[in-house]
Amino acid sequence: MKILQTIASLFAIATTFVACSSGVDSHPTAPTVEQEVCLSLPVATTRTSIDPDGQSTRWAPGDKLALWAKDANGDFVLSNALFSMRHYSTEFDHAYFSANINEMAEGDYTYLLSYPQPVAVEGTLATYTVSATQSGNYDGKYDIMVAEPVVAKALSAKERVELNTVTKHQMHALKINVPEGRNLYGDRFYRLEITFPSDVVGDITVDVSDPNAEPTYTNTSNVIVVEREEGFDVGDDIWVFVLPGTVEGDVTYRVRGERRHSEYTTFPMSRTLERGHVTPVRMMIPVVYPLYTEVTFSVDKNNLGEDFNYFDVYDGETLMGKFERNASNKYIVSYEGELDADVYDNKTFRLVFDSNNAVVETSVNLGDVTAYTSKSYSVIVPYLFAEDFSALQTYDGDYTSGPYTSVDGASTAAQDLSAYGIPSGWTGARTGCDAAGSAILVGGRVDCVILGATRAYGRLDSPAMSSIKAGKQVSVKVSFTYSGSRSGSTTYYPVGRCGYTTLSGLQNGYATQFDNNEAFTDIDGAVTISNIPTSGSASAATASMSYTISGCTSEHRLSWHVGHMGYKSWKVDNGYGWMYVDNIKVQIVK
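RE: above sequence
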């Protein structure tokens, strides 16, 4: 891009200006009858929109002025009053503005005016907003003007009053043009992004009593985006309004079309952007690239226990991408062109990870999708198996009722637990849930008689470790948290063991009769669970332990067994004890 060294002024340094008003502050002695008044402005010296010749401006119907009127005592009878341009004179040499205001007392007034209407006013300080997003058309709302104070008679419904004043433009404009042969993009573009080395847009506050006073700036930014629905091409003028000031450093820009964008182009700029002047810019559109919407998956943690070799990304059953593991653990799915937000907003992608011994799956919700952007998602490779019972519903699994003899199968019968919100494959005998979305409990019972005790043992069995590949055997580490409680006699206390089984289907609990010792059966690799609390709860399952299963296959199931112990030969008594199980995690041991 080449910037011409001359600054062409599109605006007269002094322009004759006239205005009308609508916001009203009445002088205490003025009549209060509202009336329509009109003022006129000489067209030749007060204009706001660009004429076809690109070198002059004209008023347009609907243009609005803000007017202040101060009487001889220095009191404002009008403040920020809004006047609208209605029509031209027959000879088109005057533009007429009107407003409904309270009747003004006769006499001379000092009039102050600005264009357009401010977004905020404090006394004679008027604030305007110059947006960081502009259309590229000449937009009068950014061509801020302040008039020299002028003395004239009171506005009246009886006659038009001409305000012969001089107005001064407060903004600077860039007039960007793409010359023939310099659109290497080769097509219309619809968006121009410009980054300046200093702030060029934001809020500007001017003093309407002095058009030569230095403005102040707030809420500023150095980035401008120019967008036009019909686009831009060779020969088109692109108007950009900026705050006056000095620009010293590199300016960077690029354009975007429907399916492509240009590379970023940088050029040095050393220029004072003066008020009321225009800088012409001859812009070259640089080399273009296909325009992509990118989804980046960053694998930040691996809970599987062994490295994955690759993973596949699926939209439903449609394969979107296959990625070999790399050193950076960042993986990009790209879409050329625009993603349909109606289709992809909140779309869930499945990520399937493949390692030497296992296949595990997780999901990512895309959230709000914006076309032509890159969005990153943090991904954790999941555990080989995990369950936190967050979907578990409350249920009573007879863990504190029923007969308890060794010949009574009903007290130890297993059931499918998927009916209570957890995944298929979980089974249990004498289990239950007393706090939804929390730990599951496994219970035992003791009935003590003079010669011995009858005990019922509950058990909990997980789904099979189906994430392990068929034919593979691995060592796995199983960890979980637990708590416990009891009811009945304080002579007794819950006891438990954890391990595994390779049996499928429902696995019943069991009972013993006249046995004063722990009688755990049907559990492989049994490990004692020590110090089960006797006054805990589901929400207090914070004790933790782990154990290892060697040679674990896809048929292995995790298993927990719980009974109730404690015996005094002279006491006839009974009680219940149970253990809460939560936060189960299984990892491959390398």
